[in-house]
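In this section we walk through a basic example: taking a raw amino acid sequence and producing a predicted 3D structure, encoded as discrete structure tokens. The instruction is simple. Fold the sequence below.
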Amino acid sequence: MIRKIFLHGFLLLGLSFSLFSQDTLKAPDLVTDRPTQSVSPVIVPAGSFQVETGFIHEFVTSDISNTFYNTTLLKYGLTEGFEIRLGMDYLKNVEQWNDGDTQFITRGFTPVVISSKLHIAREQGIWPEVAFYAGVGVPKTGAGAYMTGYLAPTLKVLASHTIGKNFSLGYNIGTVWDGETPQPTGIYSVVIGMTVSERIGIFFENYGFFRKGFFDFRSDAGIGWLLKKNLQIDLSGGLGLNSKAPNGFISCGISWRVP
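The resulting token sequence is shown next.
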């Protein structure tokens, strides 16, 4: 039962964090979908291939933790304004029993997530940059306890505003299914980003998951550093804001666009 709860939680997180997203750390020639939860409405240029990968350690409770050793997302710009994406993570779940005397460990690849992002509108005045995200977790592609029996779709509307020279506001709203039950879960995120220099940006974010009788609220913050025009590293961390949320997480990663 506990593992099924974590699978459900992973699918919610993996499809929206597919691994963490970044609308706010914009830089010339490179915009990534990490490290924030908010997926950017910016599309990978046509003909470009981009790799975004990282490490996440999630403190679920004092006795349970999740470690994502590689939250890898591959992106390709199929045309101007449309990208296709492929994601898969390697997850280790540890449950402590009997005051830590016994450990139950589950590890393996999570289901393959196939997704796409379609650009809808450019930012103009008060109107935001807008894109639409559609993805699906493929059943029978994960290992053991992480495998799902049915398709696990995710649908999101993505938007962002530029605020002055150094600030931006991004937000997502959508719905996700876990691949096991027909009941959908709502997802939302709101992120404020600030450009510190030409190569460094920081963000602060609130996000959550909700359905009837269930509310999971969280916040996070982080920094991205552009080493080159096509290479970025990032560091972030977050906290749960209510009893339904995990205690917190830490994450680091790297994003690279093939020259």
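Looking at the output, two observations stand out. The first helix runs from residue 2 to 17. The helical segments are 2-17. In the next section we compare this with other chains.
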